[in-house]
Amino acid sequence: MVNSHKSTIYDLAALARTSASTVSASLNGTWQQRRISEETAKRVQQLAQDKGYALNRQASGLRRNRSGLIGMMIPTHEDRFFGVLSQAFERMARERGLHPMVVSTLRDPAIEVRTVQTLISYQVEHLIVTGATHPDGVSALCMRHRVRHVNVDLPGKKAPSITSDNRWGAAELTRLLIARSAEPAERARNRLYFLGGIRGEFATEQRVLGFSEVARRRLGPVQEQQLIRCGYDVNQAEVAMARLYQDLGGLPRGLLLASGVCLEGALRFLRTLPMDEVLACTFGSYDWDPFAAGLRFPVHMVRQNVEGLMSEAYKVIDGEGSQAGHVVQVRPVLIASP
C-alpha cells in the first residue's frame, strides 16, 4: 500500500529536532534574519528535499504579509539578450533570498496586464518589467497594489527605468561599419541601411538616431528608405532583407541589424547568395550572438551590459534606486569581428 501522507512542517521539525518556526524560516529564506545557523538551515532544506516537502508560498505569504517572490516580465524567450538577462535576474534574486519567476508576454499589452494581475494575485513583492510595450500601464497596476517595480530596456514615466545607451552603441557600430567597408562600384549602393525594430519604440528610435547621425556625417543625407523598421521577427526580417536586395539590385555597402533575431532573419536570405556578394557588404548587429563568430563573413556586434543593467535594476528593488521617470543608461560594449 502506498503511503499518501505528505510531510508537514511539524514532521520536518521533529526530524530536524528543532521548532516549526525554524523550519519555516529555513525554507522561506529568512533564516539569516532570524539568526539561525547555516548548518541548521541546510539540514532542514535537505530534509525537505528528501521528504518531497514543498513550501506553499502563497499561504506563507498570506500569513507573513510577504511572499519572497520577485517577478520578471520579458517580451520573448526567443531573443538571446532576454534569455541572458533573465539568467542574471534569477541569480541576483537568489543572492537576496528571493524566489524568481520569469514570464514572457509576447510584446502584447493585453498579456502584460493579465500577467501583472496574476503575479499580484500570488503576492509577488517586486517586479522587473523588461521590454514592455506599455510600461506605464504596468506601473499603474503595481502602484495600486504597492509592488515595487522598475523598467528595464524600455523606459516609462511612472517608475525608474534602466536602459542600454542605445544611441551611443549604434553610433559606434555605424562608425565601425563605415571604417571596415569599401565603396561599391555602383554609387546607388554606397549607403548603409538599418533593418529591424519598431517605429516609435524607444530602443529602436535611439538606435536609429545613433546610426543616422554618423551615417549622415560620413556618407551624406540618410533617406527614410534606409530605415527599415520591420519589427523583431525572424520571418519579417528575412522578407525585408530579400526586398532590399531586390530594390537595390544587390547588397548595400553596409547593414546594421536591430537585434540578434533580425540577424537570424537576414542570414536566412543571405545564405541563398554567392559568398563573394555577401563579402562585399559589411554587417553589424545590435546584440551579441556567439554563433555569429562562426560565420564565413564578419559580423560586428554591440553586446549589451547585462550585469550592469540588472545591477542597476536591483538597486531600485533594494530601495536604493532613483525616482519615477528617471532613466539610468548603461553603456554597452562594441565587439569588432577580426
Explain how this protein is built.
- The protein has 338 residues and is α/β, with parallel strands linked by helices.
- It has three domains: 9-55, 434 Repressor (Amino-terminal Domain); 64-159, Response regulator (Rossmann fold), CATH 3.40.50; 166-303, Rossmann fold.
- It is 46% helix and 15% strand.
- The protein has 13 helices and twelve strands.
- The strands form two sheets. A six-stranded parallel sheet has the order 2-1-3-4-5-11, with helices on both faces. Strands 7-6-8-9-10-12 form a six-stranded mixed sheet, with helices on both faces.
- Strand 3, helix 7 and strand 4 (148-152) form a beta-alpha-beta unit.
- Helix 2 crosses helix 3 (38-51) and helix 6 (109-121) runs parallel beside helix 7.
- The chain is elongated.
- 41% of the residues are buried.
- Residues 57-65 have low confidence and may be disordered.
- Residues 7-64 form the HTH lacI-type domain.
- One of its GO terms (molecular function) is DNA binding.
- This is LacI family DNA-binding transcriptional regulator.
Tally of DSSP helical segments: 13
Shape: elongated
What is the CATH architecture assignment of the largest domain? 3-Layer(aba) Sandwich
Order of helical and strand elements: HHHHEHEHEHEEHEHEHEHHEEHEE
